[in-house]
Amino acid sequence: MVEKHSTVLVVGFNARPIAFSAKRIGLNVLVVDYWGDLDIYQSADEVLIVRELLETDIEKKQMGLFLELAQELKEKHQIDFILVGSGFDDQPQIWEKFNKIAPIIGNHPKTLEKSRDKMKIFNEAKRLGCASPNSIMVKDIEDAKEAAKLLGLPVIVRPTRGGGGQGINLANNLNEIERIFQQLSNHRKIMIQEYIKGIDASCSLLSTGKSALAITVNEQLIGISGLGAKDFIYCGNIVPLTAKKKVCDKIKMYSESLCKLLNLKGSNGVDFVIHDHEPFLMEINPRFQGTLECVQMVTGLNLVEAHIKACQGILPQKIPPNKGYAVKNIVFAKHDFIMPEIKIPGIFDITKPGTIVKKGTPVCTIQILEYTKNNALLKAKSILEQIYPQFRKNNI
Q1: What are the backbone angles phi and psi of residue 7, rounded to the nearest 5°?
Q2: In this structure, are residues 8 and 29 in contact, taking their beta carbons and an 8 Å threshold?
Q3: What backbone phi and psi angles, to 5 degrees, belong to 2?
Q4: 7-105 domain in CATH 3.40.50.20?
Q5: pLDDT at residue 60 greater than cutoff 80
Q6: 199-390: which CATH topology?
Q7: CA pseudo-torsion sign 155, 157, 162, 163
Q8: Cα separations in angstroms, 163 against 88, 232, 280
Q9: What residues form DSSP beta bridges with 368?
């Protein structure tokens, strides 16, 4: 059992939301985070930052640094357990090493590996009656071109590993496939995938390993140019998704079935694209999702507390009624600049003033809860319009 004053180590590329929720339930919180945003220090007793070490020693590998810093905290503190955030979905060997520092409350590394095997997951989904994009694993450029001809252009060219939309590309012709394949040459496994155009969605669930409960169905914001994002980069959410009940019920049913099939535990997410009112499975995220705070805003649940209880076999007896609509916008830099000091209500994950920010880098996050979806979107837009003028171009 997790006691109120237990010490948790939170590791993740953006650990702040998890750390904040852990702090709210009375835990002592240690953090190894990638970005080191300004407001993470308010949510933790001690924070170590990977990015700062990478900037001083470019030879160091970021995954190794996460482990090194976690070990450093272990030598100073009695760590009772670990919570893992984003960035390690395809790194079961890293989870194994974290597990030796302190027990991970969440999925077992072998469960992680199973849930990220896309080809096997797609096959399991089809047995459940859930559609998924036709996909072919390829070894070289010629394989990739043949797969594209078979599936029909345009196609998605993507590594099997990765998160946040990184490395996912749309190829409209064979020349583009060749160019993209060369860009992805450092990836061991590459997949050519049928392009399913539609509404990006996800389901946030709690699972015990034997049972699962869908908490919310969410809209995903992908590649929004107004937020400085491009291609398939994840840049936020709207919770809940506005869609027909039949579609949302299908997403919940498929997500719960997959979680039970894979024996997933704790907080998990399942991604879909809705095409012609039919959800197509895209992938499973066997850890806390980027929707964490939006789901908490809408339901009133503390997902860290609920995650720990789910891992102990306890699910909520009922899902609280929605309090409104939550909007999350991740704001990306549209050009290079030096980060100014910004003080605007409703923004989080704020880059430290004085930081050199490169184009395409996340700068901060807007998160808003309003009674109606329209009001939430308008308020988020109003905040965004206040943010970008403060990022003045600099000759860096």
Answers
A1: -105, 120
A2: yes
A3: -90, 120
A4: yes
A5: no
A6: D-amino Acid Aminotransferase; Chain A, domain 1 (3.30.470)
A7: negative
A8: 9, 10, 18
A9: 327
Helices (H), the chain: 16-24, 50-56, 62-76, 92-101, 109-115, 118-127, 141-151, 174-183, 245-261, 292-299, 303-311, 373-387
Evaluate if residue 54 carries a pLDDT over 90.
no
What's the rounded Cα separation, in Å, for the pair 230 and 219?
17
Distance in angstroms (rounded) separating the CA atoms of residues 217 and 82: 27
Helix (H, G, I), strand (E, B) or coil at 318: coil
Maximum Cα–Cα distance for the chain, whole Å? 58
**Structure-block tokens of residue 289:** 């999702």
Cα–Cα dist 341/387, whole Å: 11
Q: Is the pLDDT of residue 162 over 90?
A: no
| Ordered alpha helix ranges (H), 152-244 | 174-183
Handedness of CA 294, 5, 88, 352 (dihedral sign): positive
Q: Which residue is listed with tokens 């970021």?
A: 62
Q: Tokens 């979806």 map to which residue? A: 373
Q: Are 348 and 370 in contact (CB under 8 A)?
A: no
134-194 has which CATH code? 3.30.1490.20
pLDDT at 167 over 90: no
Is-contact 201 274, C-beta < 8 A?
yes
- d(CA 107, CA 104) in angstroms, rounded, equals 8
Sign of CA dihedral 97, 103, 105, 110: positive
* CA angle, 66 then 23 then 384, to 5°: 80
333: Cα separation from own chain's centroid: 19
Residue with tokens 């929707």: 291
Q: Estimate to the nearest angstrom the gap between the alpha carbon of 353 and the chain centroid.
A: 25
Delimiting residues of CATH 3.30.470.20 domain(s) in the chain = 199-390
State the burial class of residue 283 (Cβ atoms within 10 Å of its Cβ: 0-12, 13-18, 19+): buried
Task: Please tell me the predicted confidence (pLDDT) of residue 163.
Answer: 67
When the pLDDT of each residue in the chain is averaged and rounded to a whole number, the result is 93
Check: CB of residue 22 under 8 Å from CB of residue 29.
yes
Mean pLDDT across 263-287: 97
- In the chain, CATH 3.30.1490.20 covers 134-194
Report the distance separating Cα 373 and Cα 369, nearest Å. 9
